């Protein structure tokens, strides 16, 4: 994609700039993402080009050994999942002016998805075990 975009929370106090690496979105159905976002967390990969404004009232919550969640401390909007090592940044598509520009192409933790909803169209899927085998940090702290 290559185009820098500005995202914002509901109240507008927490803004960020990010450059999505593609025009695609992914959905995470893990229990942490569902609790963090109030449903499925729909994100786009902005790794390498994601930065909050200096005055943004953002709170970061360390949700695992290797990840943290960023949200506006004023209105509570869920804004991003960030790896603690700074290598990965996944921004909520809902924070951008046109979230529809990011069609959902894949779903993570598909085996954790509640049975009460499903997405239309075809998506690639990955179970929790498949995700952890591919992306979880190794015991020495590096990615597998």
List keywords for this structure.
2 helices, mainly beta, 144 residues, eight-stranded mixed β-sheet, 34% strand
Which CATH architecture? Beta Complex
Please give the CATH class: Mainly Beta
Number of helices: 2
- Order of strands, main sheet, comes to 6-7-8-9-4-3-10-11
Structural class: mainly beta
Question: Any idea how many domains?
Answer: 1
Residue windows where pLDDT falls under 50 for at least 5 positions = none
Q: What is the CATH topology assignment?
A: Metal Binding Protein, Guanine Nucleotide Exchange Factor, Chain A
Note the overall shape: globular
Cα Rg: 15 Å
Task: Output mean pLDDT.
Answer: 93
Q: Main β-sheet, in a few words? A: 8 strands, mixed
Span between termini: 27 Å
Strand content: 25-35%
Helix residue percentage: 10-25%
How many β-strand stretches? 11
